[in-house]
Amino acid sequence: MANPTEDHFLKVALRMVDRAGTLVRDAFEQPTSNVETKSSNTDLVTETDKAVEELLIRGLSKEFPDHKFIGEESVSGGQKVELTDAPTWIIDPIDGTTNFVHRIPLIGICVGLAIKKQLRAGIVYNPITRELFSAQKGKGAFKNGFPIHVSKTEELNKAVICTSLGIHNLKTLGEPWLDNALANQKKTVLAGVRGHRAFGSAAINMVYVAQGSIDAYVEYGLHCWDIAAAAMILKEAGKPFNLMGRTVLCAGTPSLAKELSSALTHVEMETEGDA
Ligand code: IPD
To answer: pTM to 2 decimals?
Structure first.
């Protein structure tokens, strides 16, 4: 059923994301500058990440003064991750910052909205390829206004899957974790997957599952801002999702998810924040 309030929230967010897209596209056309590292030398941030997050938070809080925010760069700056019942915008200004820095056009501006801790809307926008993915609870998932659907692939040996070594985990989880990640890659190859991809952006990996180009995706150690917006788009394909769980394993079909899951050795991650 239509919810005029949430329709309005999404409409405003789409307007802000469009503005943010112009900013990112302009920066993408310039030589790379001012790259800083955060938690490790594989965790990058640029002036553009910060400017986009500021633009989105400033614009949304002006329209919705009582809404809360969880933003990747604000958290890096010391803000706590706190998901309450209040309408909360979960923002990754550029998911795929390493791609952005290396001018690889696979990035997503991600804006998710949770109300009472449940995802209600999500936008993932790649301003370089001009692919706009969006979804609203109960209304389906769309790319540039057209409905999208997950693939119907049921077997691993017919699937193209996305995985990521997630090298950012090395610092916290150490070498045993890396051995496990490499072994998992090997297991999926031996299980006969049709192809392995790693696009360098969790959000892009997820929306590519949502549109059926990729059959499944697995990664450990993600944050809610990497996945909230894209999870909404996937949820609209009927998948339950633990937003604060720091792990993504998603697939077009339950049988593929089950086969992939049993081929892997899983990593236990602590849940995020105070959810
Ligand atoms: C990163 C990307 C990457 C994933 C990392 C994320 P960021 O997000 O999604 O694919 O492997 O875990 O941190 O830092 O570019 O926003």
So the answer is: 0.94
Strands (E), the chain: 35-37, 44-46, 68-71, 88-95, 108-115, 118-126, 131-136, 141-143, 146-147, 160-163, 195-197, 216-220, 247-251
| ipTM of the modeled complex | 0.94
For 204-254, what is each residue's pLDDT tens digit?
A: 999 999 999 999 999 998 999 999 999 999 988 655 567 777 889 999 999
Q: Whose CA is nearest to atom 10 of ligand 1?
A: 201
Q: How far apart are CA 57 and CA 67, in angstroms?
A: 10
Distance CA 241, CA 43 (A): 25
Catalytic residue among 97, 98, 153, 188: 97
CATH domain 156-263 topology: D-Maltodextrin-Binding Protein; domain 2 (3.40.190)
Question: Could you tell me if the CB of 246 is within 6 A of ligand 1?
Answer: no
Q: Residue 261 — φ and ψ, nearest 5°? A: -60, -40
Q: Answer yes or no: CATH 2.60.320.10 is held by domain 4-147.
A: no
Give the start-to-end residue ranges of the domains of the chain.
4-147, 156-263
Atom 12, ligand 1: which residue's CA is nearest? Answer: 222
| One-letter amino acid of 18 | D
Extract the tokens encoding 143.
Answer: 């790319």
Q: Give yes or no for residue 95 CB within 6 A of ligand 1.
A: yes
